[in-house]
Amino acid sequence: MGKTSEGENTMILVRPDWKREVSMKIWSRGVDFYMILITAPAREKGQVFMKRNNEMWNWVPTINKMIKIPPSMMSQSWMGSDFTNDDLLKQFSIVDDYNHSIIGSDSVEGFDCYKIKLQPKPEAAVVWGKIIMWISKKDYYELKAEYYDEFGELVNKQFGSEIKDFGDRKLPSKFVMIPTDNEGNQTILQTDKMNFNIDIPESFFSQQNMKKVR
Prior knowledge:
outer membrane lipoprotein receptor (LolB), chain A, globular
């Protein structure tokens, strides 16, 4: 991902007897600054999530309250979806907080992929006990991931697809997260727009801006 990015995403929560959509705008700067603005549905519109260095915040305009999100909540569901708070806010880095080893090759959706095991570093208080990722050997698309708890049990499977152009980059535009213990449940995260390397200063990622960003 570029040093900065700005995008629009749609999240679709699918359950056996209902479905709902959440629309959002996302801004990022490096790996330390991240902001998500909910733009729909109406009851959640205006809610903002922010990562600034190691701190996570949630602005809830309906109750006029700024809530600090503790690290202990990173493994919990983000807005009732099958993605965790950490999946969206990225407190933990798959690059810095895990040791990586290539454990094989595999084909995913016709792409020749490296199969990579990620084990958390001893000092890293991360969400997952282990992650297995399938990354295409050409262009390094993230096409599949399996997330395991600290007991080695498979919790979630994620699939990336629908490679699209976003400026000078090609990326999977659709990610589907499927929990293993809730049959019929899944959450789709669709990237609708994405721009890279635009001017987003550090000062954008502030509690003051959370209250007025649109």
